[in-house]
Every structure is written in structure tokens, then in C-alpha cells.
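quick one, 400 residues, struct below
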Amino acid sequence: MPLYTYSAIDASGQQVNGEGDYSTVPHLFESLQAKGLDLISYRRQYLALFTQRRSKIKRVELSEFFRNLALLVRGGVPLREGLQDLTASPEQPAINRVFGRVLSQLEEGRLLSESLLAEQKHVPRIIIPLVAIGEETGRLDQTLQDAANHLEKVQEIISSTRRAVSYPLFVLIAMLGALIFWMVFVLPQLLQLFTTMGLEELPLATRILFSSVEIFNVWWPVIPGLIVLFLLCRTIAVKNEKFRYWWDMLWSKFPLSGTIIRSSQLAFFFEYSSLLTSGGIHIVRTMELMEESISNQVLKEGVRNIRRKITAGEPMSQAISSLSFFEPFILRMVKVGEQTGNMPEQFHILAEYYMKKVNNLVGMISKSIEPIIITLAGFVFMVIVLGLLGPVYMLASTIQ
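---
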């Protein structure tokens, strides 16, 4: 919706300035009247469309907003006044715009869950039914607090996964860049210099270096070609769900990346399951919401199959038994939860387990990859140094 800035007068005659998203000018006028304000002037912000598209609510910011709103509601502050207070700060314009629209919907008589439903691009879909349950049971403050805790845990999973993947990738790219620089710009010039010195027989390390440079100069275009192919496949995977399934399946088969992806996705799965089932949402509805929220297509297909089997009357432990994505001990934990009638607690235990597993993987990778990378780098540059020092030593001996 278009963004308008406006000036208005309240009941006491004081001027109020503000901004908000409104579909039309009459919509702006009616919304201000509902707040007891009389419109003086307005201006549509055409250039704001670009900044609105670029601005995105961070998960940490959204978590803090829900936590503050839960605190206000628990303290007896009316929901509308709480939203007005939290959207008055100019430090978070994206939050202010989104929840300013939510506030406008509330003032028109809609529920908070209904208002959030219109903001699914900014508010995770999985939180909205929790808010609806909180409204029905009178425990809105608790469900808002649960939503804030959930967003923090999701952010922790994502951050841990990114750290586990980014560290070895960064080191590998740095090493590859340094090696390419030497092979393309430095070594060919030095080796050409050695050939003009008239040395009859070069040392073995120098001959290996010669051969490596010649091979690299022939095959180096393969490296940018592989990078372009990777980016192309990733772009197609984002737009095509069928291709994304095989893309996710491919990465889940690699030893290291597969363990990281599997652990992080299972942490997502059980965190979602614990959050929704503890809030009183039926397991079938939980699977439906999870299917909409999970990005990994392999797990999404697994959740879809679980939902179908549960709908057909199978217990969850039996529904997940045929899926290789779930480890055997998960089946045992789910069976215990079914027998004791305490599934949310079992889901919570499993979510904590996989979150710790992801964090442990991050620490293990940083400790194990570093010596391997250092050893490999040392070997490569040892060959380079020996290959360069050998002819220099032979030349010095000849001069003497």
C-alpha cells in the first residue's frame, strides 16, 4: 500500500504528525477519524516504495517486539495502546510500518491474529495460530512470549548453521584465491626467468612446479565455470520446487554438509512441533503449518507424508518410521511421548538435542578444519618455495 505522511489535530487542538500505509486518501481520512484526529494535510511518499522493498524486519527485531508487547499486555496495558507505544520509536521504521498497519486493522475491529494474517510476508505464518489461541484462551501475553522465544531459537539455529558452513568455505576461497594469484601472475614470470638462465637440468620440485603451472593455465577456466554453474543451479533451485528437492537431496548426501543440514532441519522440525503442540494445536494442523514454513524440500516432503499418514489414522511414531531423514532414536522418543501423552515435552527435548548438536558441530569444524587447512597450505607453499629456491641455489653454485 502507498505510504503517506500526514498532519492532524487531536481533540485537545494539538498538532500530530505521523506516517502510515493506506490504500487511498479516504482510507487515511477514516483511519485518522477513528483515532479521534482531524486531517489537516497529507503527502504521498512515492520514493518510499524502493526503501520499503529493501527494508526487512530482522528475526531478532521481531522477537524483541513480541517480547515487549507480551510484557505490556501482561502488565495490563491495552493491546492497542501497547502497539501505539512500540511503533512510536523512529529507530525501527520497518517494524513501525508493518505493525502500524496491524494497529489500523485493530482499530477497525479486527483481532490481532486476523491483522497479522495480512502481514505474512513479515510475520512467520507459524506464529499466527498461536496468537489466535492466546486470544481465545485469554493468554495472549504467554503466547506472545512463546512466539518471541521461538524466533530467538530459530535465529540461533540459523546462525549456528551459517557459522558451520561459512568458516570452511571462507578459508577455502581465501586459499584458492591466493593459489590462483601465484599460479597466474607470479610463478609464470619466475619460471620463465629460470628458463632464460641456461640451467641444464632443473630440480624435481621446479619441474613439478612447471608442470603444475602449465596444467593450471590450460584448465583454469573450469574454476569460474564451476562457480557459474553453482550459482545457476542455486538460482533455479530457488524458483523451482522440484529442482530444489534434488538440490537439497544432493547437499544432504555429503558427509559434513549432510550432517549439518540434517541436524539443523531436525532442530527446526522439533522446535516447531514443540511450540505448536504445547500451544494446543492438533498434530495434523501442526504438520500443515510446518509444511508451509520449512524451506528444505526433503524435510518438507517428509512432513507431507507424515501428515497424510496421521490423517489416515497412523500414530506419529509409525508415520515417521519409514522416513530416512529421522534417526532411529527419534522413533523411540516419539513412542514414549505417545504412551505418556506428553508429546510437547518430547518434542522440546529433541529440539534441544539437535540445537546442541548443531552448536557442537560448529565448534568441531572450527577445531578440525583449521589444522587440515594449515597443513594443506603448508604443503602447497613448501612445493612452491622448494621449486623457486632450487634454481636459485644451482645458479649461485655455478657462479661460485
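The beta strands are 3-9, 15-21, 38-44.
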